[in-house]
């Protein structure tokens, strides 16, 4: 499908350079994302526009959200690349047109001829760079083009941006509370909304600051680092070390072979039990677990990381793990560490750390005390915060359900509103003032203060002079008359950039790599004043309009009010 | 990909009949769902099993959930068809193996040769029929096969079942509260977890009892009825009726043409304003809206349904709608009705209904009073319930965000636990008793009472005699000694049926059509005692084990407890 669409776009334009641009953008398109991935009413409206001869009317739509998610005062914008890919490949296949004809049999043939020609060569897409910190009411994207085509884009754009931005924001919030030094692993595939929900989750959690995913397909498609060791089932699938047949292990430097690694492990276990280092631990450790750990170490001597809570962390998991790790150490390998998937993670991480340190000292094993402790089990922003407050020895967190389902708030309400048609500004009124749209084709600027932090976002009419460094500008709340302030910016950043300019690739921003988007997100989070970003009682960031735009909004508002009615 | 996998499976088996079965199952596979759509640890474990020579060990895993979602006492099982398709197509492509080799460079070549041969010809999948009402702890699926292969299936199976079952359950709950007579429309595409989240939502909401979707791609792929009319943007894209150039409309019977439909509408509007039927409405209605409605009616004279809340429902939307509907009526067309997307839906629906009835009487327009009132705007189970209690005149509900994101509980915690390996039963213990797994390869029976309602589900060991109609059987709580009861079933249904039997298609259940799955779901909801299904304080349905299985669980439990420790 991508291939065909590229060819079609090239036919229109004909240049080789253009072909390359489109081919590049058209890269790894999700085959689910066809022009039919939209609400039926976008097609019924397209027909009504076409019947009325209005389908070529030039419309401007803003895509924005109304309220920050997760009780916070910011969000992170994501999903742009997929929107641009969608636009670049936008072309109805013949069989798709046949399907539309079958469900809209009342429509005239000419309409389907029109649909056959439809593409995005007259569409323009302006957007905030992907990975930016963004705020309510400020357009994340401005989409211009023939009204019928731009409306066909509404549902897929909102679909592609909504969850992407929500889960990126969720990931960023987890990163902020975990701190920079911790490793964050996304383990959510099994709890996501189906296969593609899992793929999107892995991609956008990475952008939001996670370090790796367990999702192999996402690792392959997006180049995200992969992580994973073994599960409880692996542990209970073993009965005892007697099952292990091939017991030989070559030493790390290749100089010698341990013929019976199982026996070496067992001798270390006895030694550990004799030392008294494992306070309170007596009796036997679980033999299934010992066999599973030994087996895993034989397979991955350089990557031995064990899940230690299948039976009892302190009485079985830790002693078994340490015995295997010490046996590996004899052969020159360094074990990675443990994963805890239940229980009191703060307490267990401290206990494990203490034992690791004691062993380092007792047996003079350099680095044993610093082994990685990974924690999983229904973690979320709140539990990370609680762990921090309590103190813990966890180095890495594996987070699944709460991260990818955005359990704390599973939807971001992005909307797509008409703000201008045929150069006429349009406003959508509502009895609920937070639902009133901000009319006009706008420019958006972020004004920075002396300390380098962002102070305010300001929306202006398209033809107003832009804010200037060092010059005072009036920033007004879009709807509340009393809220206004003068700001003297030290730096001005225009937020909306052109990512799609119909057939022309001139002046079009490049789509950055995943790594660059992630880097932008990390940098943006740092450029915000910390009080906007904190978990508890964050300060709202100010979003404003110019004085001129304010006056115009309120003029339009009055003119649209029903006659004879106080609105 | 599907094609290749079928060919590979056929090579193993060779029969033409088999090829057809596989080709059929392999039908519309989601291209996202490849064997790499799994957690990395499934591959690292596969390697460890392979290294230990354990990879062919015959394992039995149960897939089940632990707690009913949405504060209810039931769930609906869905996602089975996609699991079976996945199994039928399970084959690693050469480039996928190359990728695995690149991320697991420490693994021996022989392992990748092994992966190259891996398929599901030795796997068996038993499952509760899709669309069944199901309960915690009872296996929804039992998967048997070589341990390394069955573990590779864990993540995709849980991914495919978790959200599918959750959103089907959510849809079923909405259907139960809305009642049979209402039309339920799924409008969630823009708020779902990406494109495939939207596709899954449409499919499974239909199974759970919704009547139609707005998602065109889902309509095409699954044959689900489609619904949709127009948005607020359509209304505000018009300035005034002067814009409408082609004003002619052929009458419904084709006998005459109204040359200026716009004028006919306007004359009806004046007539309405003079009658006083529109109590309290004076002054002008909104001209953008009037133009949009007129235009939409010109495009869809047989399907005129208008969104009436862009400006003011009672002062503009309803009068404009009625004028257009009456003009259509003059030409022999019947308008469909209105959609309300804001405000007090109960009140507005009553007001609209009153006006429709008054117009039917005043102008003698048969059926005008019965026009459809559709409501949307952030609806959920709770608001439907509140509307019912308050009384309303809504015929159809359009539900999006809360439905598809499962806002009230966005995750179902399906797990996949080892219950037997090489004929040895395995149990997963936990300090939390709700997390203890029920060991052994089991059979599951649903016992029905005299009134036709299901009484209890009972799990038995594989080789126990099954429950018999009219014979008393002891049903025990799996973990609580004191909870037990004798039941005399009037009807016994074995729940787990074979859906995949390796290479053989013998004794394998057919995969039913979407319509049949939906019908099963609707029928199952009726077969449950209403007190299990009610919203408020539902009665828990009983899930039990046989006396023999109870004894065995507790024997195993004791034998796994750490030595010298009271667990």
Automatic annotation (TrEMBL), chains A, B:
InterPro entries: Aldolase_TIM (IPR013785), N/Namide_PRibTrfase (IPR041525), NAPRTase_C (IPR041619), NAPRTase_N (IPR040727), Nic_PRibTrfase-Fam (IPR007229), Nic_PRibTrfase_pncB (IPR006405), Nicotinate_pribotase-like_C (IPR036068)
Sorted UniProt keywords: Glycosyltransferase, Ligase, Magnesium, Manganese, Metal-binding, Phosphoprotein, Pyridine nucleotide biosynthesis, Transferase
Pathway in which the depicted protein is active: Cofactor biosynthesis; NAD(+) biosynthesis; nicotinate D-ribonucleotide from nicotinate: step 1/1
Highest taxon, organism lineage: Eukaryota
GO molecular-function terms, A-Z: glycosyltransferase activity; metal ion binding; nicotinate phosphoribosyltransferase activity
Domain Nicotinate phosphoribosyltransferase C-terminal: 441-552
Reaction catalyzed: 5-phospho-alpha-D-ribose 1-diphosphate + nicotinate + ATP + H2O = nicotinate beta-D-ribonucleotide + ADP + phosphate + diphosphate
Domain Nicotinate phosphoribosyltransferase N-terminal: 36-162
Post-translational modifications: Transiently phosphorylated on a His residue during the reaction cycle. Phosphorylation strongly increases the affinity for substrates and increases the rate of nicotinate D-ribonucleotide production. Dephosphorylation regenerates the low-affinity form of the enzyme, leading to product release.
Family as reported in the entry's similarity comment: Belongs to the NAPRTase family.
E.C. no: 6.3.4.21
Pfam families, alphabetized: NAPRTase, NAPRTase_C, NAPRTase_N
Organism: Phoenix dactylifera
GO BP field: NAD+ biosynthetic process via the salvage pathway
KW Phosphoprotein (keyword) present: yes
Protein name: Nicotinate phosphoribosyltransferase
GO cellular component: cytosol
The Nicotinate/nicotinamide phosphoribosyltransferase domain, residue ranges: 336-437
Annotated function: Catalyzes the first step in the biosynthesis of NAD from nicotinic acid, the ATP-dependent synthesis of beta-nicotinate D-ribonucleotide from nicotinate and 5-phospho-D-ribose 1-phosphate. Helps prevent cellular oxidative stress via its role in NAD biosynthesis.
